[in-house]
Each structure stands twice: as structure tokens, then as C-alpha cells.
């Protein structure tokens, strides 16, 4: 409430009333310009992000195929261990994988002010545009659940857990093995 009394005192002083009003108007104009600049730069970033997300969603199936491939390979290799049959594997992830796209950067210098513009690099073949992918990050595995026929022995459970942990690079304590 102290601010309200300060503002009232500023406007009650008749000698400086016009000066205070002009100062307040200038302050409001500067504030509006700053807000406009902030939201304008957010709009540019969101437009660039939305085009990138459209590209990522079309190429997300490659990551899903890779995740499914790891799961199938793990099931196949575990079923080859002596005494184990009919293996099912569930992998949990802490983050989804992503593809890092290549960007074209255009820099301009006018009167000492440098501006740069980034756009996604495309490869165009027969009228189809596809984004150029620099690198692909696979999803990070957080835990594994394995259900297998013949996993009733402690020694076999240990072998299964150790093998699975080595394949997906997680600690053994994040692997749970159950009998089917």
C-alpha cells in the first residue's frame, strides 16, 4: 500500500504534475515497445519451432523403429540363453529420442548491427523436401522388465538381468526379471 500513497503524493504536487505525467507516458511507451519486442521474438521462435516439429514428427517413425529394433533384438538374444524360452521385454524411457537438424544461417551486417537468420536445411529430390539430419539421439532407457519362461532360478534371473543391462547400458538394479 506504500506504493499507492507515493503515487498519490506525486500527482498531488501541482508544480510537478505535468512533468510527472510526461515521465509516466514516456515510461509506458518504453514498456510497450519492450513488450512488443519480447512477444515478436517469441513469435519468430515459435514459427521456427513449429516447422521443425512438423519435420520431426515425420521422421519420428525412424526413432520408433530403432527402439522397436532394440526391443526385438533383446528378446531374440535372451531367448537363446540356455533354459529360457518365450521372452517378452518392456523398456521404459526417461526421454524421447530426437533428431538434430542441419540449419542454414544467413548473417547480415547493416550499420554495425549484425542480424542472423536460421532456417532448416532441406534436401529436395523430385519435388519432395526432406530435412537434413545432422545426428540422431536415441531415447535414454530408464528401466527394463523382462518376463521369460524358465526364469524361476536365481542364477538364470541374474544372467538375464546382466545381459539386458549390458545391451541397453543401464545398471543391473534397473532390470526386473519375472517368470512367465
Task: Summarize the structure in words.
The N and C termini lie far apart (69 Å). The chain has one domain. The longest helix has 63 residues, at 17-79. The protein is an alpha+beta fold and 180 residues long. Strand 5 (122-125) and strand 6 form a beta hairpin. The strands form four sheets. A three-stranded mixed beta sheet has the order 1-8-9, covered by helices on one side. 49% of the residues lie in helices and 33% in strands. Residues 45-56 have low confidence and may be disordered. It has three helices and nine strands, in the order ααββββββββαβ.
Structural class: alpha+beta
How many separate helices?
A: 3
Q: Give the H and E element order.
A: HHEEEEEEEEHE
Separation of the first and last Cα atoms: 69 Å
In the predicted model, the low-confidence regions spanning at least 5 consecutive residues are 45-56
Number of strands: 9
Shape: elongated
Radius of gyration: 30 Å
How many domains, as an integer? 1
- Average of pLDDT: 76
Keywords:
alpha+beta; two-stranded antiparallel sheet
Task: Provide a concise account of the structure shown.
The chain is α+β, with helices and mostly antiparallel strands and 180 residues long. Helix content is 49%, strand content 33%. Strands 1-8-9 form a three-stranded mixed β-sheet, with helices on one face. A two-stranded antiparallel ribbon has the order 2-7. A two-stranded antiparallel sheet has the order 3-4.
